[in-house]
């Protein structure tokens, strides 16, 4: 299991954060997600044998947000 | 093919609208989606043999929005 924190640019409200959480929760291999508008970060716990960090970043970016850092 | 307009309460910005669009696009049976923050509406074209109106409403509501009318 792997944990990655994605720094997200473009989050404008708590609604955005909640909706990105639902999008990430739908990805196969994702075990836990928290997304914070206040910190502009998504924390994702996932099985890297099922889903890649790149795919998770692409999921976040699809509606128009931008991942500016991962740690 | 069926077209439903969902009136949505709780959309606070364009980012919310874009992210709900991506969520709806992921549903099997959905052919076209537009979501407008300005009008507070999602217009969805879908195959009612594959996905129900109730399921689409549930998808919109999962992040915390509320469907107040359908037409």
Automatic annotation (TrEMBL), chains A, B:
Gene3D superfamilies registered for this protein in UniProt: 3.30.70.100
Top-level lineage group = Bacteria
Q: Which intervals hold domain HMA?
A: 2-68
Q: Which SUPFAM superfamilies match?
A: HMA, heavy metal-associated domain
Residues crossing the lipid bilayer are none
- UniProtKB keywords: Metal-binding
Q: Which CDD domains match?
A: HMA
- PANTHER family of this UniProt entry? P-TYPE CATION-TRANSPORTING ATPASE (PTHR46594)
What's this protein's name?
Heavy-metal-associated domain-containing protein
What is the species listed in this Swiss-Prot or TrEMBL entry? Acidiphilium iwatense
């Amino acid at each position: 299991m792997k944990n990655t924190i994605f720094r997200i640019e473009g989050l404008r409200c708590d609604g955005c954060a909640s909706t990105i959480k639902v999008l990430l929760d739908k990805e196969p291999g994702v075990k836990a997600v928290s997304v914070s508008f206040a910190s502009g970060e998504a924390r994702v716990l996932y099985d890297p044998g099922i889903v890649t960090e790149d795919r998770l970043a692409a999921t976040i970016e699809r509606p128009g947000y931008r991942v500016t850092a991962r740690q």
